[in-house]
Amino acid sequence: MEQEFYRGLAQRVRGMAEKADPFTRRRLLDLAKRYDSKGGAAGRGGTERPLPAPRTTPLPSSYSGPGEA
Predict the structure, then answer these.
(1) With contact defined as beta carbons under 8 Å apart, do 29 and 51 qualify?
(2) Which parts of the chain sit beneath pLDDT 50?
């Protein structure tokens, strides 16, 4: 049911994009892609980036020692 909701939103946003200026059209089409990915329509261009691998080493400290000011 939630998938249908997001698919419907994506369709409505695309309809609005047809009547919008180029800047707004691009933003609306990006929004429609996000709704497609939430609606489970990955075949229509909704791709997600994989999560980065967890760090195994700590970040280097910007402090070199306790005696420096």
Answers:
(1) no
(2) 42-46
